[in-house]
Design goal:
Strand content: under 5%
Structural class: mainly alpha
Number of helices: 15
Length: 405
């Protein structure tokens, strides 16, 4: 029933159904039945394209109509779906996928859609430098095509929103021909960009499948020569048992193994990584400043004034460090710890009982009597000073100095 229904479908409907399955298979994993339907739909598209004679080797890409451009992608979509199938011999699957990829690339090359030099396999292109340059150029074209497709999609969405808004605001449709022309040009540009992107993906996929086919063919040939068609179950069980025993012994040793002290010196860690030192060696963060010029030849054993002056030749103009970064960090940590201890001690003293009690009034009658006596003496003194101010008003002592006094 499904095949009869597929035969009754039109070419655009078949291609759209296969394209949706291809997008779904590219974004996520799909089941075998969906892959089978996609391959059948694309094979049916190939038969219909061949019967209708949509493409000819005598025409160029400019002569292909915008409606038919998308059907160039049928072999590429079929190659990717065939590669994702898991049933059957993997080598035969790879060969079938490679056939469709080559068919797609050769037709695109005839239409002058493939960049110059991509399909050349001469001796001058076998070096690693040429391959790397070709891959970099292909990656740049792929990124540019993806950005172009995203831009065209956003432009189409904006035009659709503006068209709907204009249709709601104006009762008479104006400028429909211009909109259709723009849509046609953008659709053609979008399909050409999609074909360019698919060419980059097809070239990468063809390289990967070719290497996989060579590897599997070599393994199969070696197995046929040795007479072993597959790895025996006993060998697999033995390897699994060996791995389990190793992990079990390692976990048992880890219980009684003392972990090594962490390396806190960057210079020492670099020495360990480069093989100049061992982890077990002691390290006390002592680093001598780097010596330049004749000082490095003297080696620190300066015995005369002449050697001292010679050692200062070609020295850097700035002051050399007297300690390493690790030593400075340790000193700062030590200073911070001392400051925290001192701060904590001051806070404790501020909150202690003797500090608060010395401001409280002392209990006992003697102290109260002394305070009362002090208060009475102060009051008598204040009263006597008030009386004196009453008898001697301000400025009274200078009355004889005034001219009219």
């Amino acid at each position: 029933m499904g095949s009869m229904k597929m035969e009754d479908m039109s070419l655009p409907a078949l291609f759209e159904q296969a394209r949706k399955i291809h997008i779904l298979a590219t974004d996520s994993a799909v089941d075998k039945e969906t892959l089978r339907k996609g391959c059948e739909a694309l094979q049916q598209c190939e038969e219909m394209i061949s019967k209708l004679g949509l493409f000819s080797s005598n025409e160029t890409k400019e002569e292909i109509s915008t409606t038919n451009l998308k059907y160039i992608l049928v072999p590429f979509y079929l190659a990717e779906l065939i590669e994702k199938t898991v049933d059957g011999d993997r080598i035969q699957i790879l060969k079938a996928s490679l056939v469709k990829l080559k068919e797609f690339l050769l037709f695109c090359d005839e239409m002058e859609l493939v960049p110059e030099g991509e399909l050349e396999t001469g001796a001058q292109n076998t070096t690693a430098i040429d391959k790397r340059a070709k891959k970099i150029a292909r990656f740049k074209r792929q990124r540019a095509a993806e950005s172009k497709l995203l831009e065209l999609k956003e432009r189409k969405e904006r035009r659709g929103r503006s068209t709907r808004a204009a249709a709601l605001s104006t009762p008479v449709d104006a400028g429909d021909d211009d909109v259709l022309d723009d849509d046609g040009e953008e659709e053609r540009e979008a399909w050409l960009t999609t074909i360019s992107l698919s060419i980059c993906k097809a070239l990468d996929l063809m390289e990967m499948l070719t290497k996989e086919e060579e590897m599997l063919s070599a393994i199969k040939e070696k197995q046929e020569q040795e007479g072993d068609t597959e790895i025996s179950q006993a060998v697999l069980e033995e390897r699994a048992k060996t791995v389990e025993d190793w992990h079990r012994n390692a976990s048992a040793r880890a219980r009684y193994t003392k972990p090594a002290a962490p390396i806190t010196c960057a210079t020492f860690a670099q020495d360990v990584l480069e093989g100049r030192a061992k982890v077990s060696q002691a390290h006390d963060h002592k680093h001598q400043p780097v010596m330049f010029g004749p000082a490095s030849l003297v080696g620190g054993s300066i015995t005369s004034e002449r050697e001292r002056i010679a050692a200062q030749v070609f020295q850097p103009g700035h002051r050399l460090p007297t300690m390493s970064i690790e030593e400075a960090g340790l000193k700062e940590m030590e200073m911070m710890n001392k400051w925290q201890e001192r701060t904590a001690k001051m806070i404790e003293e501020a909150n202690s009982s003797w500090h608060n009690d010395k401001w409280k009034p002392r209990p006992g009658g003697a102290d109260d009597d002394e305070d009362d006596e002090d208060d009475e003496a102060a009051q008598d003194k204040a009263r006597a000073f008030d009386d004196w101010k009453d008898e001697n008003p301000r400025g009274a002592g200078n009355s004889k100095l005034t001219p009219c006094g």
